[in-house]
Known about the structure:
Layout: E1 8-15, E2 18-27, H1 33-44, E3 53-57, E4 61-64, E5 99-102, E6 115-118, E7 131-137, H2 139-146, E8 161-166
Antiparallel strand pairs: 1-2, 1-8, 2-7, 3-4, 4-6, 5-6, 5-7
Amino acid sequence: MSDASQPTATITVSSKGETWGDITLKFYPDVAPNHVGNFCKLAREKFYDGVTFHRVIPGFMIQGGDPNSKNPDRSTHGMGGPGYRVNAEFNNKPHTRGVLSMARAQDPNSAGSQFFICVADAAFLNGQYTAFGEVESGMDVVDRVVSAKRDGNDNPFDRIEMTVTVN
């Protein structure tokens, strides 16, 4: 059991009515307290429930957290957020396999709700994106997500949905 100062989260992944498994996350509140707090707040509000992993790139990462992905119109996937921004908290945590980090637009202070999990080391992201946690268990589920068949925008053809709970 984790204490309130060290929350964990579980992402339950499913597609076409089949549960694929859980991805358990532990956070880095010491180096990215605002990002950890934002992710946990959104999860507690059920913001992430029903959104998809809308961008999967083998050898790189899986990305989710866009509320637009609840809509079947795939042209809007990857463009949504919570309606506010979270300022960057760049830190010395390296972007290695299993690291949880915030997606953003060109502006370093444009993170909101979209996040990604590295499936391979991505040192070129170090100091450019806010690493705020890592996969504690469930990399097999992450690997299954990243291997999904996808379109030209790296969006899986079949919806891969998540439900996120904070423990």
